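The following record pairs a protein chain with its ligand, fe (ii) ion.
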Amino acid sequence: MALVVKRGRVPKTPHTEFYAKEGVLALEEIHGTYGFSGAYARKMHVRRYPTEQTRAPQPAGFELRPRSAGEPVLQPFHLLAGRLPYGGDFVRARKPLLFGPATTVSVSKPDRSTPEGEFFRNGEAHELVFVQEGEGTLASEYGELPFAKEDYIVVPKGTTVQWRLKSPKAFFFIVESLYPVHFAPHHLNAQGQATLMAPVVETEIGLPELPAAKDEIGEFPVLVKHHGGRLTRLVLGHHPFDVAGWEGALYPFTFASASHHSIAREIHTAPPARQTFQSGQAPYNGFSICTFRAQIEGWHPQDIPAPYAHYNADSDEVMFFSNTSYGARKGVIEPGSLTFHPGALPHSPQGDAAERSKSSRGKLSDYLAVMLDTFFESLEPTQAALEIADSGYPLSWARKASGEGVSPSA
Ligand SMILES: [Fe+2]
């Protein structure tokens, strides 16, 4: 995020003497990316470094390692994640479904907040979370960040968090990346600001508000995810949210999917116009995230609003369907479904979607879906994904009409 934000108090000149409490030298931390060269934040801890562990690190007792489903057959997948049960907190409810060397796709359907006094830190991946259901607050050393249904939440790698639910349960679609996540570069000017033609504007992002620093001692366990989904339990002797102030361009933020202001065209609009986020350095690595939401469909008198068949050879594509209005998959998907189309295969709308889409020409659509396209990275399904796969999906294009004979079999 190019926007530099400041919360609380920090010294004007970095790495100089500063006292948040009288007579107590505050201790500075840089939370950075891309070595010392990418976006970073400068945090001022009231009196202790974030390195002060008071017990030997231990395995957390559970893991989030994606379990490969074995030698994959090349096929498209439809995963019925809407049918998964709720249970556990944000971390323990998390199920990796697809994974590759740099990207992991999971869902989490918690029915409770992070346990009181426990913290989570993803030490190996930046997280982009879409809220399908629920509301609450993401608490971190950066402050308290409210979130609601249909928001995106971007959480930088290395942020220490608690997921506090206000709703009895929640449903999150989670994409993890080795690389930082930010707005799509082709919607930014050379100074890093969203252009006047961009579907996004910085004034609509949600930022954390920093409460008073927690200057407390005790036992504070932090579950840290590392090395491909292993979890280690660290114990700090002081509260991790002991920050008197911070400033910088790396912090958790929210962005409502409704704030993605769709760009329409007289004829069909390709996904880069719908792109909200980018991870990594396009087009060499990472992924793009597109928001398919309400927009005026092409109004050319002969426009076909349904997408064309596409063989996007450098991308594996994952789509998360928040609702079922997306015409190209109508009759096939459910709310909370994911489709996974490997780059090694072309895909297209099913059945007579192209013919049917003519009736939406020039009209406002009401679909909501999130699309992930990897760049030069293949994903594979986990065992958990196979357990919720619609076995009829690979042959669903052979049927003439939408919905005809579709038999989800999870
Ligand atoms: Fe596609």
